[in-house]
Amino acid sequence: MKSSVITFPGSNCDRDMDVALKKFGFKNKMVWHADTELPKSDLVVLPGGFSYGDYLRCGSMASKSKIMKSVINFANSGGMVMGICNGFQILVETGLVPGVLLRNKYLEFICKNVFVKINDKQNKYFKNVSSEVLEFHIAHNEGNYFCTDNQLKEIEDNNQIAIKYCDENGKIEDEFNPNGSIKNIAGIFNREKNVLGMMPHPERMIDKCLSGDDGSLFFKNLINNLK
Amino acid sequence: MIVNEQVAVDHGLKKDEYAKICELLKRTPNITELGIFSAMWNEHCSYKSSKLHLKKLPTKGKKVIQGPGENAGVIDIEDNDAIVFKIESHNHPSFIEPYQGAATGVGGIMRDVFTMGARPIANLNSIHFGSPQHKKTKNLLRGVVHGIGGYGNCMGVPTIAGQTSFDSSYNGNILVNAMTLGLVKKNKIFYSKAAGLNKPVIYVGSKTGRDGIHGASMASASFDEKIEEKKPTVQVGDPFTEKLLLEACLELMAGDSIIAIQDMGAAGLTSSSIEMASKGDLGIEINLNKVPCRETKMTPYEIMLSESQERMLIVLENGKEEQAKKIFDKWNLDFAVIGKTTKSKKIELYFDEEKVVDIPVNTLVENSPMYDRKWKKAKLPKKNKIKKEDIKHLKIIDVLKKILANPNICSKEWIWQQYDHTVMGDTIQKPGGDAGVVRVHGTDKAIAASVDSSAVYCWAHPLTGGKQVVCESFRNLISVGSKPIAITNCLNFGSPENEENMGEFVECVQGIGEASDYLKFPVVSGNVSFYNQTKEEGIKPTPAIGGVGLIKDYKKMITMEFKEVDNLVLVIGKTEGHIDQSLFARTILDEKNGPPPEVNLFNEKNNGETLLKLIDNNLIKSAHDVSLGGIITAVAKMCIKGEKGINIKKPKYLINEIEYFFAEDQSRYIIEINKKDFKKVADILNKNAVHYDELGTITENELYINDKTKVTIDELSTSNKSWLNNYMGK
Prior knowledge:
heterodimer; A: alpha/beta; Rossmann fold; 9-stranded mixed β-sheet; about 25% helix; B: alpha+beta; about 25% strand
């Protein structure tokens, strides 16, 4: 399986994603933001970081960068595109997934482990994942997902919510919501579910000695689903 | 502007220093030259009050590749890998403007590390605030934490450990010390020594603006009521540009075009160009019209003294300019050839085709003033006798709960959750333990780092306090299973012109030197911050020690949380019952006098090295050093982190329960071992003449003392975790 990770100026989880993808069998290529063509890929990842400094709305500059035209075309033709953290913010800015990401409820950066409940398994990202609840890791300042009532109805009707913040048993309550996201949303799909944006970093959860190992579960499953 | 003695005094120079400048130049300096002298001769850049004493520190060792004198120290961690590290203060600016002050402190220290060719792999910090009740404390704390996070998070470097304290002596002068570790190949280390004639001098990074002018001079003076006016001397940080600068520099460093490289930190273009020339015994000629400027009509004076951030100066090999420029263009950074190296041994600056500065380099560096300041030796205070009636009504559990909730002991999760501590995917021990640990990417090795200070002990007796801080750093590194290698120090003190403050400095440095010499734990880098005082009121002496250790196999790392019910808990090291200057004495008895706990370097080394042997033999399940709050506090924290209980019995000593549980005697650790290993462990401890107590057995969820009093771990956890959240209104 071939993957591509886009490096924007200010990306800082690009290496981590490269390490994770390779660990689970992807042949990964790093792609520079100023390039115009994507290499042939089965998966394109927009990694975490602070693209272009994120001095404007997070992800807004990156969404207009040269490579993104190809990424958008790739997504619109059914290609798998995953945006993690800043990558999610970029996806939102391109309109590939609905909604916006506001500053966290307490206006503070949060770095910690969270649990997420998989809301939909009818897609290549989570199909066959052996667990309903995953322990993931978040590290962000703007992860407070928000959308209009109409949008919410639409994404709920289409089952576009990918994962929700919950406790270790999968209970979804306000108290397990780290950033104030509407409906505890931690990640969403586009309508066709080939594009996934999520705040948690599975690439930081690929070894028991790190924050945990549930990222391994995610990546192993992902590559199998793509085969 | 005509330069005279008054102008020089306004620049922070003393009258005799000004006379010396005129004598060295054999003429009156012009205003730009005076600015350059004031920047190079201030305390922050010249170390004029500290140099004499810093020379006494042990700086050499088998593992030391580079000691003090470069941008950062470098140590060998084998297999052609090396760690570059340093700690630096950003105290004065952080008090004036906490967000930018702290942010640029973090940015500055990271630049020091990647200037040497190393990719930063971990950040740490030591931050100290006034009393929680003081009206400024809350905002300063919030601003500093946001600033540290804002910069480090954007750079994508994990912040893995730190230290926060509160004490009213910091009411008017907070401390913000930032430390960075970087990883480099031993054969790819870059230095700041220029070499060769007519080599191009290159400016890269951000443009120069009018921010931070005279920042270093500001940091070399006490505060007074006009402090608000000093805001323009605080630099403004741009972590995004620094991230680009990091990547661009590392890309250029992969080739062989760099002769020397130096970041523009304190005193900006002035100190960077002069240091490179001085180390290379060369001259430098710069055309200031070529310096990329952010604002129009900047004068030579402003260009030379600006402390705009995210800039570097590079001496390149001839003919490599185009190749280098391509890299900086790719990263959208300014790149300008601004001058060349010369044989004149002078710094010669041109502006609008006129020579505006002409100073021999040695007058700025070797001939800079050095003072043997008067200092007063501190007496060892008399020991207090605890009166029975003062403690007989105290209940251990109540006292423990109070201590766990004390601002200086309580959980600092509110702080470190705002720092990205997991980016780069190698953090195997997060903040909240004895030391932070990161793997050396792609290897089995890991690096442990901790930062410590004990201002109260240093204040009570500087010599003992200085020794103690080094020992505590040593212990923290051993507690996670690493072999301590070297330290960096950040020496925060009041005014060197005050004999008592100077005495605190001299004796703390002596203590640091003695301990690091004995423990073979040399000082490889550091920084001095004097004048942490407002009018006549100075801070408690606060040397911060950043220690670095190596774990050869990261799977052998130890953490502090209790692991398994029924395991045995031992105390390593002897408890004499030293209560003076303990958290217990200061907060429960309100007794502020007396000597700090004695430091016995033999025991420190012996106990630590023996524990490392136990760890190496896979006999240790968890370990934690005993420090503030004594044995019971250490044990409670291990319970809270491991969500386990313990059944404790005080050994039959002559000292009473309070003394046993709350004393802050040194060289002690709490360890958890499997019952079946007890004999093996006891044998090794006995063979090495290490004293130990059998303290108790791990249980489900209660702390139970001497079969008579108990408390649930949940309750202790709440005491420990609520104070800071409540204080910050979360």
